[in-house]
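Worked example (supplementary).
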Amino acid sequence: MSLIPLLLAICVSLIIGQFAKGRWRGWSLLIASTLAIYWLQPGIPIRHLDFWLHTACLVLTILIWVFTRSDELSVSHDNLLTGLILAGLILLIGITRYLGPICCLTPSRPPSFTQITLVIIAISSLALLVIRFSPGRAGWIYASILLILGLFIILKSEYLANMVSVFLRSVNAQSVELASPFDIRWLGFSYVAFRLLHTLRDRLSGKLPEVTLQEFVIYIIFFPAISAGPIDRVQRFTQDLRQPFTQSMETTLQGGQRILLGIFSKFVLADGLALFALNTINSSQVRSTGWLWVMLYAFALRIFFDFSGYTSIAIGMGQLLGIHLPENFERPYLKQNLTLFWNSWHITLAQWFRAYFFNPVTRALRSSPRNIPMPLIIFVGQLTTFILIGLWHGISWNFAIWGAWHGLGLFIHNRWTSWIRTRAIGMENRPAVQWMVGLGSTFLTFNFVSLGWVWFALSTPAQSWNTLLKLFGLV
Amino acid sequence: MSDVNQDHKLTLLRVVIKGLLLFLALDLLFIPLAPLHVLGQLSAYNLIFPGRVRLPYGENPDQAYNFSLYNLDAMFASHELSAGDKPANEYRVLLIGDSSVWGYLLKPEQTLSSNLNAAEFKLKDGRLLRSYNLGYPTLSLTKDLVILKYAMQYKPDLIVWLLTLESFPVNKQLDSPILQNNPATVQDLITTYSLNLDLHDPRFVLPRFWNSSLIGERRALADLLRLQLFGVMWAATGIDQYYPLTYDPPQENLANDQTFQGLQPPRLFLQDLSMEVLSAGHTLSGGVPIIFVNEPIFRSHGENSEVRYNFFYPRWAYDQYRQLLMQTCQAESWQCLDEWDLVPSNEFTNSAIHMTSHGTQLLANEIENAILSQAGP
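After joint prediction of all chains, the assembly is encoded as:
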């Protein structure tokens, strides 16, 4: 997201927080978030795709709410009104097609009004049919999970995304030769998918609270957190949403400070570091080991300031709107071991994977009749979890290796902690030694994480391996 | 409760107003302070990073680790020329000129100055010949003059000024963005040396009130910071320009067009050329000798090559230019070299004046001889 849309989003947050009271707050957030997802979407060369992707996002959100709904809520006046407002907004955005050059809500001209109307009628009919007949909700929920995972895999795999691009281009009678995986850029889908999967899983386990369609849509596409998270939990989010909120001086200043900090982190520090941070091209151009380390550290800091900057902006905007989004970073590079690092780096993502993958996997292995040893369970759990986290960034060998790097690192740390526990008795009485060990551990952890970024920053395992050797003067 | 809210709103309003006033004050304070000149001299080059071997210039910053900016102080501060006081045992030669001197498509170690330095030639008095690349990729003698003016503070012993006809036309003098964005410096030169240029040329980007404020100068400030940050990549890679894998060689088959910069054959007159800029350079150098070199050009052998030498030059204009230049050199007792046909056509890269590494070496050999004869036995 560039600075101008960001400043506009901040102004919208201030206005909504200041003036939208009571039930108007919910409606304002719904309208602002819906318009924002269309407006923030970057242009896509495939005709009308930038419009359809976010319409699909809304449709998916509405349908999943229908599949996970509570019977009492489903027919309420407010839910119907939310549905009508969403349909109206989609049509309104569609109408900008006829406004010519003053059209500004979508990066390209929306499709024809008839097409949009037909899609809205079809989706509304499907939703009403499901509500009316509701044949076995669990089936719908599993189908939704599979659909989201399928979309996820397509979007994260260059090969599959390219195939989809070829297909869509041929359907649209556009040049197939120009097809590229970058044609399928769906802003914020990763975070939308995580939130949807969380609600689907919580529905299956009976933990999903009753939420209205309005609350559900706002939670999924909340505009401050659409592009870079954090991944909040619906239980916590709706609590804030339901609380009456008055923008006070304190909240405004806190939010403003957080936004300024975020803007500084992202647009000054991260963008400045980006000029010399390690990448595929410069890793092969560098002539000395010393500067290669500088570039690697620049990458490590850049990715932190970039991501934490966006998170700060989202949290700050949330504060202006009375929504306390969870923290995503807590000084991760100052942590003394990898476990603490992963408790403070992209916290909401790590928690998500812990809740919906690591815990179920280790639980399943523990209850296995084969009596698998605990270290093996931890090894399998951590390795698979982190490989999945790696693949979430993109389906490639490098991201998988980056995940494995951290999975193995965490396993080794886990074993080391067990081993050292009995051998380091009395350390608490020696503060100087403790301090030195702490410092050394922080140094070691930071460098382990930084070296891991080599896999993340570069595009092929061979290039990454070569760079690692170069870092230690072995090439 | 509503009173508390009212108080909060008023306090918030006061905070916002105070913040805006402070920002406005800082913004306006920037105008009288005009700190870009001083800020430009603060540089991590020659301190943390090695000095650049050529002036910052580039259209593709992400790949070149270099870019064009208009702050001459910053440009020179990043150059190796600013590395400290001139060593006592150095015979300092400054090379000025266009992109062929700067070394377009050449690596830093392949440029004219690097070729001259590679020989590590010592004069008889024991001083080491050391040349510095102050070429800059736009074609204008006035641009060269601005660079020369700035460079004189570095105490050169000799200046080698490489020329080509395309830098001479009067109407081209102020086309260079670096001149347009340094109006005071250029206007000062126009006045001091009575140059045949308009003091109020509309191409000058004149400093307006708000453009000189902190907000107005934000791009210039960001450029200063970017130049420092690119220092890491310069130090790490030694790369300062983008080298495309392929490029189009100079055009062999030419249009049957006799015009040159709006001028028609048969005669090229002295007043068509900004020859007075060379005189100004001579005066400005204050006794430091200058060698003028008419640099090599690509000579086509294709279609219409009997009409034009290359894409830039019709034969009639170029031949008369050479004649006029040499006549002026003779009349003014300037030391001039005419190397126009020194480099074979296959030793040019992507334009009529950009030479290959070997072509540059050929020119360097000639210039080295001239320098040595100038520097004395």
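Two points are worth noting when inspecting this output. The mean pLDDT of chain B is 92. The interface with chain A takes residues 5, 8-9, 11-12, 15, 61, 63, 65, 225-226, 229-230, 232-233, 235-239 of chain B (CB under 8 Å).
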